[in-house]
Design a protein that fits this description.
By secondary structure, the protein is an alpha/beta fold. It has one domain: Rossmann fold, CATH 3.40.50. The protein is built from 13 helices and 7 strands. The strands form 2 sheets. Strands 1-2-3-7-6 form a 5-stranded parallel beta sheet, sandwiched between helices. The protein is globular, with a radius of gyration of 19 Å. The termini are far apart. The mean pLDDT is 95. The site of thiamine diphosphate has 16 residues, from strand 4.
Length: 326
């Protein structure tokens, strides 16, 4: 059982993510977020549970839907919001936007716009960890849509044959844009597919932060014990459209309401903590208030920051300068 301090941390982080996404969604609709964004509301427990079980030295690569992973890894919400606004104070200095949230000081290699690439980037990180003989792991997030891309399985295959310290987490919100996963996934079973590649894999309730945390901690231990790559299929749900402004006609309101009313990761965690008397209503209100204040400050910071100087757009983007940083 999670101890009280960590249980409250789980809640604070999930509420902070929900607040960030709620505010960012509105700002996107008002035209403040060039390029738009992918909202992760509903998927908070996957991000928070996984990150809580990782150590600072572990390396992580995410997907196009990365706000929740970024906050759970401890990124500054000010540098994230400024990046969404494409301001020069953003984590990618305003050149990347929502899909390029990154913080190398946290070994967080961040999001990218290529479906399935998080797994390949993480495989490369795992190879580096292996070569340098470090006592850490690499984690690659992917969506259920990425399960049907070739690069995912090329990377997993390589990780298996080289016994690399790689954990794959499927942030399985069950839809790839407008497509329900069962319609496009042969065999319909991600775990069976992973096992056929010679790796351990399990399916878990991605709405239960404690279950996600424990599964990740177990997988990390197995990897460090030399048991090779592991895969976790965390079943979750996204409340909003694929991206902001999408008109969703591919799922019913009843389905969305059912997940929101009965399987919400924040509501369920609160009920659990209240039932065990691990938190009070006042503490919950304080957590909500702090999240509002923090995200309010992030928006103020982003609004007040300048756009990048166009004379510097080519700085640091040539491969030579990237190599010199290594
Ligand atoms: C290689 C590639 N193919 C297609 C796309 C277009 N695309 C962007 S997101 C997406 C769906 C991804 O679904 P999933 O992996 O389930 O992630 P989710 O959006 O549900 O988080 C697609 C097809 C892309 N960005 N990259
Ligand atoms: Mg999906």
């Amino acid at each position: 059982m999670t101890e009280p301090g960590q249980a409250k941390d789980f809640l604070s982080q999930m509420i902070l993510i929900r607040e960030f996404e709620t505010i960012a969604e509105g700002l996107t609709l008002r035209g403040k977020v060039p390029g738009g964004m992918h909202n992760s509301s509903g998927q908070e427990a996957v991000a928070v549970g996984v990150m809580a079980a990782l150590k600072d030295e572990d390396a992580i690569a995410s997907t196009h839907r990365s706000h929740h992973h970024s906050i759970a890894r401890g990124m500054s919400t000010q540098s994230m919001m400024a990046e969404l606004f494409t301001k020069s104070t953003g984590c990618s200095r305003g050149r990347g936007g929502s899909m390029h949230l990154v913080d190398l000081s946290r070994n967080y290699f961040g999001g990218n716009g290529i479906v399935g690439a998080g797994v390949s980037i993480a495989m490369g990180l795992a190879l580096g960890i292996h070569i340098l003989k470090k006592n850490s792991i690499a984690v690659g997030f992917m969506g259920d849509g990425a399960i049907n891309t070739g690069r995912t399985w090329e990377s997993i295959n390589m990780a298996v044959i080289w016994n690399l310290p790689l954990l794959i987490v499927i942030d399985n919100n069950q839809y790839a844009v407008e497509t329900f996963m069962d319609r496009v996934t042969g065999g319909k079973d991600f775990v069976a597919r992973a096992k056929s590649f010679g790796m351990s894999a399990e399916v878990i309730d991605g709405q239960n932060v404690e279950e996600v945390y424990e599964a990740t901690a177990r997988a990390r231990e197995r990897i460090l014990a030399g048991e090779g790559p592991q895969l976790i299929n965390a079943v979750t749900y996204r409340y909003f459209g694929h991206n902001v402004g999408e008109v969703g006609k591919y799922r019913t309101q009843e389905e969305i309401s059912d997940w929101k009313s009965n399987k919400d990761p924040i509501d369920n965690w609160i009920s659990n903590l209240l039932a065990k008397k691990m938190i009070t209503e006042d503490e919950i209100s304080e957590i909500r208030e702090n999240a509002k204040l923090e995200i309010g400050k992030a928006v103020e910071f982003a609004e007040a920051s300048p756009f990048p100087d166009t004379n510097t757009v080519a700085d640091d983007v040539d491969s030579g300068s990237l190599l010199r940083q290594l």
